[in-house]
Each structure stands twice: as C-alpha cells, then as structure tokens.
Amino acid sequence: MSVDMNSQASDSNEEDFGVNSEEEEDEDDGGEEEDQVDIASYYEGVASDVEQQGADSFDPEEYLFTCLTYKESQRVLTDEVNTVAAALKVSPAVAKLILVHFHWHVSQILDRYVRLSRPFIHSAPQSLQCGVCLQIVRRDALLALPCQHSFCKACWEQHCTVLVKDGMGVGVSCMAQDCSLQMPEDFVLPLLPGEELKDKYRRYLFRDYVESHFQLQLCPGADCPIVIKVQEPRARRVQCSRCSEVFCFKCRQMYHAPTDCATIRKWLTKCADDSETANYISAHTKDCPKCNICIEKNGGCNHMQCSKCKHDFCWMCLGDWKTHGSEYYECSRYKENPDIVNQSQQAQAREALKKYLFYFERWENHNKSLQLEAQTYQRIQEKIQERVMNNLGTWIDWQYLHNAAKLLAKCRYTLQYTYPYAYYMESGPRKKLFEYQQAQLEAEIENLSWKVERADSYERGVVGGEGELSASDRGDLENQMHIAEQRRRTLLKDFHDT
C-alpha cells in the first residue's frame, strides 16, 4: 500500500509550467469516468479491507512518498543549493553543478569538501584571440571559464544558443576540444537571446536537477509537473496525485515487482525483438483437449469448461482440471533439459526459444486476463450502481464484489511480473522456492478469478436466477481474497527487489 503524503494543496493555484487550476478540475472529473473502464486504482482501499479479515498486516510494497508541485520542488532544491553554497563559499550556480555531480547527496559533499581549494570564478583571458573564430577582439569581448579557454562573446552566444535549442541544460559545457567543464547557469543565461529561450533553459535545468537528485523523480505522465519525493530511493510503486500515473520510482517505467528494473528492461527489449517469433501464441483460441472443438477465452480465469462436452481443463497446459490442483507447480514451472549443454548449437537454440516462449505465453496470458477481468470489473460497477439507484441496498452492501475484482487485478498484476523474474533466474534452491510460491499464488488467483466470475454471473442473473450470493458463498469469496493476498505478500516479502 503506497502512502501519499501529498502537500500540494498549498500551491494548487500556483503556476506549474502553465498548468492552471481549471485544467486540473477538468482532468479530475475525467478520472472518475476512466475508473469505470479499467482497474488502475486496484491498490486503493483493498489492502485495508483484506487486513481486517486477518491477513498479514505487513505489506512489502508499502512506501512513503510525497507529491510536490513545481514550486515546492524548487524550494527543496533551493534549500540544498543554499546549504552547499554557504558551506563551500561558492555561488549558487556553482553549487548546483557540484550537487548534480554528487546526485544531491549534500552530506557527502560537506564531508568531502570543507572548503574549495580554488573558487569557481570566471577567469580573465590571457590572450586577445578567440579560440574558435581566431579573431583578435577587445579584452572585454573575450570570456573564459576557470579552464582558461578564451572565446569571444559572439561565439559563446552561438554555442549556448545551439545547445539550449537542442534541449541541453546542465550539460552545456566549454567549447574547447576535450574540455568537459560545465558552464554554470549564471554564465549561460546572459548569453541567451530572448526571454523565451531563457525560459526553456530554466526548464531544462530544472529537469536535469530533478533527474540527478537521488530522492526526486519527475512524474512520467504527459505534461505533468508533479515531482515525487522519497526518503530512500527504491524500486517501489508510486502514484502521481495529479494525473494518477503509476510507475516504479527507481526507473520511472511501469511498476514491475518482483522483477528488478534491469531485468524488466531486458525482458521488454527481448519481447520487442522476438515479437514476430511469438506471434503464433497470441491467438485467443485453442482446441478442447477432449472433443477438439475450438474454444475462445472470454474471461480471465484459466479454469476452462468446454461448452460442448463440459470438459474442465487448464487453458495454459490443457491438462485435466480435476487433477490440476496437485500438478499446478508443474504447470507454471519450466522443465529444464539437464543435458542441453552437451547437444548441438541448433538444439541449444531450439531449447532457448522453447524456454522463452514458455515464459512469454504465461506473461502474455496474464496480461490478457487483466484486460478481460477489467470488463468483469466494469460490469460489477454498473450492476452495483444499478442496484443502489433502485434502492436494492447501499454501496457498502455490494462493496465486497468491488473489492474482490480489484484485489484480483492487483494479485494478477504481481503474478504477471513473476515470469520475467523466473525466466532470468539462475537454477538452484532459491529458484525452486520462488517457483513454489509462484505456483501457490497462481493457484489461489485462479480460484479467486473463478469465484469472481461466478459472483458476476449470479449478480447478472446468469446462474440460478437474479439475486445476490448466499452468505456462505460470499464468505467463501472473502476468504479466498484473504488467501490470495497472503500468497502475494509472502512472495514479494521474499523476492521483492530491495
């Protein structure tokens, strides 16, 4: 459960890169409509509901973060700049360059530098010739950094203008070949023509300052000015309070626990590179293993029942569902060929492809299940709204169905990201433990999915007529929620990236 300690209310009317309060209100209204068609908010409210049923109260995903506006972020940066500038007796512009170099670890800077041996000042040029255009100019028309490379003001202006137009901020450096000395902002700003370009430069600087800060991350949402601040940077789930974007704080990509940032990048790159190879498993249909009729998967659950012969089987391995509970560990675990290292390169290549497709198929299947279960969630939302409007109970009376669908999505999302983790994991006792916990989670999620879909069918009058679940069925569903969440937390506690 992420804890949002958002404090942006104090600056809600302040200018955030041109964002006004009326735009924020419009987007907030639209957010309620979006919640009707997906389960993006499945982390909200469900955890406390499950904990009340006795689940382990420790949540491995709990993470404290704060959502800051642009001006609040500026104040955080300015405070640290002033601290370093005063301690090192340098200008704020130079202090910023030092902070960027040390990723804004103020304590490290103060521990390493009691004082600078040589202040960072703009040096007087030793020659009257510009090092770029080779023209002899007046001394007051030449500018030099502490590296002693002298250039005329016109060349400096052209150099800075070109780089800033290309999106450069902190990276604007000396023009001399092989000189990487970065230029402080109080040197660059007077050289830029026009306020528009200067404003762009300030925005690029802000972007670079935040991206280099070990405790800050820019929200990746489109045109969103919010900055996320944490005490300890980790690969944890954060959510923007303004645009509701959910992402991993460490890499700013989609949240991916239990897989670590480097591994998920490798996996997504591999999936993109091998997309054509994996096309054949993207179909929604398979043949019934008993009567061979073509079956389409129209729900998230992998427990399939043939509409013709009523045979119950697993969508993934096509095994008989009656014996599937005892064999679930085998269904989700890839069986390595121990003798593959002694076989030909062609055989090794085929084995490598077989292994990848095994994990990719399960990864993709859970992704599609999430999409299908989002439709179930929407139906449940609509049915609850209809019943409340017809005075057939209150929202609280039907909250258990709402929570069950959200928890199912939350658990399945975690399960989806266990497959890249398992694919790259080295064989050994730790992988066996992970695969065991993965199989346990998968089994409980399928049970929960089956119960949610049946509950949805009851509420729509498809099974046994119109009406709510019996008290025992409702209790069974809530107990299954508790078990599934326990399995999810246990796996994350043991294997979540720290």
TrEMBL record:
<dbReference type="GO" id="GO:0061630">
    <property type="term" value="F:ubiquitin protein ligase activity"/>
</dbReference>
<dbReference type="InterPro" id="IPR013083">
    <property type="entry name" value="Znf_RING/FYVE/PHD"/>
</dbReference>
<feature type="domain" description="RING-type">
    <location>
        <begin position="291"/>
        <end position="331"/>
    </location>
</feature>
<dbReference type="Pfam" id="PF01485">
    <property type="entry name" value="IBR"/>
</dbReference>
<dbReference type="InterPro" id="IPR044066">
    <property type="entry name" value="TRIAD_supradom"/>
</dbReference>
<keyword id="KW-0539">Nucleus</keyword>
<dbReference type="InterPro" id="IPR045840">
    <property type="entry name" value="Ariadne"/>
</dbReference>
<dbReference type="InterPro" id="IPR017907">
    <property type="entry name" value="Znf_RING_CS"/>
</dbReference>
<keyword id="KW-0479">Metal-binding</keyword>
<dbReference type="Pfam" id="PF19422">
    <property type="entry name" value="Ariadne"/>
</dbReference>
<feature type="compositionally biased region" description="Polar residues">
    <location>
        <begin position="1"/>
        <end position="11"/>
    </location>
</feature>
<protein>
    <recommendedName>
        <fullName>RBR-type E3 ubiquitin transferase</fullName>
        <ecNumber>2.3.2.31</ecNumber>
    </recommendedName>
</protein>
<feature type="compositionally biased region" description="Acidic residues">
    <location>
        <begin position="12"/>
        <end position="37"/>
    </location>
</feature>
<dbReference type="InterPro" id="IPR001841">
    <property type="entry name" value="Znf_RING"/>
</dbReference>
<keyword id="KW-0833">Ubl conjugation pathway</keyword>
<dbReference type="GO" id="GO:0016567">
    <property type="term" value="P:protein ubiquitination"/>
</dbReference>
<dbReference type="Pfam" id="PF22191">
    <property type="entry name" value="IBR_1"/>
</dbReference>
<dbReference type="InterPro" id="IPR047555">
    <property type="entry name" value="BRcat_RBR_TRIAD1"/>
</dbReference>
<feature type="region of interest" description="Disordered">
    <location>
        <begin position="1"/>
        <end position="38"/>
    </location>
</feature>
<dbReference type="GO" id="GO:0008270">
    <property type="term" value="F:zinc ion binding"/>
</dbReference>
<keyword id="KW-0808">Transferase</keyword>
<dbReference type="InterPro" id="IPR031127">
    <property type="entry name" value="E3_UB_ligase_RBR"/>
</dbReference>
<dbReference type="GO" id="GO:0005634">
    <property type="term" value="C:nucleus"/>
</dbReference>
<keyword id="KW-0863">Zinc-finger</keyword>
<dbReference type="Pfam" id="PF26000">
    <property type="entry name" value="UBA_ARIH2_N"/>
</dbReference>
<keyword id="KW-0862">Zinc</keyword>
<dbReference type="InterPro" id="IPR002867">
    <property type="entry name" value="IBR_dom"/>
</dbReference>
<keyword id="KW-0677">Repeat</keyword>
<dbReference type="InterPro" id="IPR047556">
    <property type="entry name" value="Rcat_RBR_TRIAD1"/>
</dbReference>
<feature type="domain" description="RING-type">
    <location>
        <begin position="126"/>
        <end position="335"/>
    </location>
</feature>
<comment type="similarity">
    <text>Belongs to the RBR family. Ariadne subfamily.</text>
</comment>
